[in-house]
Write a structure and sequence with these properties.
By secondary structure, the chain is α+β, with helices and mostly antiparallel strands.
Length: 474
């Protein structure tokens, strides 16, 4: 199943030259004004990735797409080429790309499926000119979309992959991929028919033709294991080098890439080779034709000459396959060596990662313990600070208590002393009273003289205490 997306650079224009209109009118009198138009743009061809591209009842339609018409064939010549089916054509659009001067494409709509099947069976694989090598490749298309934005037209729909529109590149692909059933050659190396088509307008064909030059990777400059994209011509190194070809596929979704040395085509989506295999007419086995193109002269039917040519090529094919086998074995050796290197690097990486993880874990444990000890140290420092502060407070309190106790002891001693003096005074007073009482009955004190006794400091102090005690008693 194929669909088309066209990046249009202008609107659709009818073909209006006098010569062509007269030709159409005389060729198709039943339809004096057929719908023949022209449009300029870039064609993007997409196929269903999960299905075979070969025609089947579910993939056929009334819309046909002629992939490439050589530019030496004018619109009038192409109309003459499809002349027997002109009455069944309801719409014919010529699509030209200004960047490609050697060919153009044609989109054809027929009246019904029977007419489309007849057109396909009659003209598909037919030469445009008996003296030229170019073949008419026709594909059934289910839809055509036009867009003024290149990004939209160049983006494949979901489940579809893009195919090259260069006929040489399409013929390099196997029938299930390209939808092209048969071709005269696989256009390997410097074949003459490639020069007739491309005029070096196709980047892929130019790389295949210029074998004397040494191309290099567009990114890293490597000259080994080079692959070229069939869609845009990007040249990158393979996965056993820097893998720029694979990165290009991941970035652009261009899944078909051709190896320059072996001319083999790899499908990144299907993960396998999709280059065309030709049938050997000697043993019937599929062989890969990497020789130059066979002569395009003659009608292409099976004949004794072709049988002899194929028979003479058997030994060359065996030699080619021996070289191919040696190349593949060398690639496998390089692949296994790279796998071993990757495994060693991975092992070293895992060991380094494990060591780093263990060291990191140990350092985290040490750091955790250090943080815990730091917190404990800070807590102890805080407790010590509080204890020192409390010690000073308690020292002041103890000093205050000692001073208070000393004051109380002094007061107590003074009070005791005062009480002792009061007791002594009382004793003296009582003794004096007793003596006075004893002397009242006698006349011994009569006519006596009372002399004052000078007060002593103690007596004066006692007197003051006595007065104070008297005041307290009062």
């Amino acid at each position: 199943m194929f669909i088309l997306r066209v990046h249009s650079v202008d609107t659709e224009q009818p073909i209006a030259t006098t010569e062509e209109i007269d030709f159409y009118t005389t060729t198709s009198p039943s339809d004096p004004n057929p719908k023949f138009s022209e449009r300029r743009g870039v064609v993007h061809l997409y196929r269903k990735a999960s299905q075979s591209s070969l025609p089947n009842p579910s993939s056929r339609s009334t819309s046909l797409f002629v992939v490439a018409v050589p530019n030496y064939l004018s619109a009038t010549d192409f109309i003459r080429f499809v002349g027997p089916y002109l009455d069944s054509i309801t719409y014919l659009l010529f699509i030209r790309n200004d960047g490609i001067e050697d060919r153009y494409s044609v989109l054809i709509e027929l009246v019904d499926q029977q007419a489309a099947d007849g057109f396909y069976c009659s003209l598909n694989g037919k030469r445009f000119s008996p003296s030229e090598a170019e073949l008419c490749h026709i594909l059934f298309t289910h839809s055509v979309e036009y867009s003024e934005l290149g990004e939209i037209a160049g983006t494949p729909p979901e489940g579809f992959t893009e195919l090259p529109t260069c006929p040489i590149c399409l013929e390099r692909l196997d029938p299930d991929t390209s939808g092209i059933i048969s071709t005269f050659c696989d256009h390997s190396f410097q074949c003459s028919c490639t020069l007739k088509w491309t005029y070096l307008s196709c980047t892929v064909c130019r790389f295949c033709q210029q074998q004397d030059e040494k191309p290099a990777c567009s990114i890293c400059g490597s000259v080994e294991n080079l692959w070229v994209c069939l869609m845009c011509g990007f040249l990158g190194c393979g996965r056993y080098k820097e893998g720029h070809a694979v990165r290009h596929w991941k970035d652009t979704q261009h899944c078909y890439s051709l190896e320059l040395i072996s001319q083999q085509i790899w499908d990144y989506v299907g993960d396998g080779y999709v280059h065309r295999l030709n049938q050997s007419k000697v043993d019937g086995k599929s062989v890969e034709m990497n020789s130059r193109c066979l002569s395009m002269e003659g009608n292409g039917d099976d004949s004794g000459i072709n049988e002899a040519i194929y028979s003479s090529k058997v030994e060359a094919i065996f030699d080619e396959y021996s070289r191919l086998l040696a190349t593949e074995l060398e690639k496998q050796r390089q692949n296994y060596e790279s796998l071993l290197a990757e495994a060693k690097i991975k092992r070293d990486s895992l060991v380094a990662e494990a060591v780093e993880k263990a060291v990191t874990s140990e350092m985290q444990d040490i750091q955790s313990k250090l943080d815990k000890r730091t917190e404990e140290k800070n807590a102890l420092a805080e407790i010590n600070h509080n204890l020192i502060k409390n010690q000073q407070v308690w020292r002041e309190k103890v000093k205050e208590i000692e001073e208070r106790e000393a004051s109380q002891l002094r007061l107590k001693d003074e009070k005791i002393l005062e009480l002792e003096e009061q007791i002594r005074d009382l004793k003296v007073y009582i003794t004096a009273q007793k003596r006075l009482t004893d002397m009242t009955d006698s006349d011994s004190i009569r006519g006596g003289t009372l002399l004052p006794v000078p007060p002593t400091q103690s007596s004066s102090a006692n007197g003051r205490r006595h007065k104070k005690s008297s005041r307290r008693r009062n």
